[in-house]
Amino acid sequence: MKKGKLFLVVSMFFLVSMTLVACGSNVSTSKSKTVSISKVGKVKEDKKLSALLPSRIKKSGEIKNGIDDAYPPMDFKNSNGQLTGFDIDLDKAIAAKLGIKINNIPTDWDGIIPSLQSKKFDMVLSAMGITKERAKEVSFSKPYFNGGMTIIVNKKVTNIKKIKNLSDLKGKTVGVQAGAQAIVDEVDGIKGVKQVKKYDSATLALQDLANKRIDAYVDDFEVANYYMQKVPGTYSKVVLNIKEPYGIAFRKNDSKLQKAVQKAVDSLKKDGTLTKISEKWFDYDVYK
Prior knowledge:
Blueprint (H helix, E strand, L loop, with lengths): L2 H21 L10 E4 L3 E4 L2 H4 L4 H6 L1 E6 L2 E2 L3 E3 L5 E2 L1 H12 L3 E6 L5 H6 L5 E7 L2 H4 L3 E2 L4 E10 L18 E5 L3 H8 L6 E5 L2 H9 L5 E5 H10 L4 E16 L4 H16 L2 H10 L6
Parallel strand pairs: 3-7, 3-8, 11-12, 11-13
Antiparallel strand pairs: 1-2, 4-5, 5-6, 8-14, 9-14, 10-13, 10-14
Helix pairs in contact: 4-10, 4-11
């Protein structure tokens, strides 16, 4: 065989071999992306996890997330109008791990599950308590955070030492956040409570508490800690032995996305990223 023909045959064999190898691989060989999150650090894409995403997410390059943007320190707008908080850092880290972007869509809390079901967004990562009623409508991830129910009072009006549990709110007007169903159910069950007042946001409720329009406000401990640090000397709190696990909500038929996101969360917990986010927002590790 002439050298020219031999070279041509070898070249064609090499090209065909490389094509077969490339087609046989499910994981992209492109360089993994890295995203930096303020006071948390860098999060690197995991190609094996990004390969698990449903085709619509790969095509769009983003996950749309429904949030309540008035629930500090979990989800809220800072003084510059930018979204920030524990959940915001978490969803950024999840998106980075999956090699895509996150698009947070502020939504009225009462309509957040119907909006998820109507495909306005892909998931809800926004301090949503896992309840039996909600689980009938959505599919939840494993708990990524455990909230603790807390009674908050106006320090100048109420002696917190006299408040030890929910039954001590008998005869009082108590504020709750509409849509925080687990808390609403607990407060509605208080015998002899004067009135249960529902608010669209924790911010509005705590303003009324400061202005003596309600006697107490019941919410999760992270909310109490945040506001007590912001306005020292205004509020007092008592943490109850009632836990409320938070989960990420998905449509029930969106199992591929749920699996990919869950594996990303598991990876972030294992590599210490969740601990760093916790320490940034709460000054301690909630995962210990």
